[in-house]
Amino acid sequence: MNVRSVSAETEKDAFENLALQYKALADPKRLEILNTICRKNSACVCDLTEVLDLPQSKLSYHLKILLNARLLNKETKGTWSFYSINQKEMNRLISNQICNVITPSC
User: Is the separation of the CB atoms in 88 and 52 below 8 Å?
Assistant: First the structure.
């Protein structure tokens, strides 16, 4: 395998990752989830279901998409999972205008 094909493959992976991340951001409910988590700094599913008025199954579906896109961090404490914004990835990915919608402190 030559350098050119490795570079093309890396570029292809980068494009696929960007598409995954922008697809994750292209949903109003996921934007609301991100905004809520940002305002709380960290939140568990039990907190988010109440605030967002979403069933736990729907919320888990959206959280998985956001985690797969590396837009959230997940920390497990005992039996609880807490979610926080992956600020480094967010800052790298989105413009200030969109960032202000999700994280007003950008």
Answer: no
* pLDDT at residue 14, rounded to an integer: 80
Sequence-separated (6 or more) residues with CB below 8 Å from residue 66:
24, 30, 33, 34, 72, 83
pTM: 0.80
Of 3.40.109.10, 3.40.190.10, 1.10.274.10, 1.10.10.10, the CATH number of 3-102 is: 1.10.10.10
Sorted by sequence, the CB contacts under 8 Å of residue 48 that are 6+ apart come out as 33, 36, 37, 54, 59, 83
Give me the pLDDT at residue 78, please.
Answer: 92
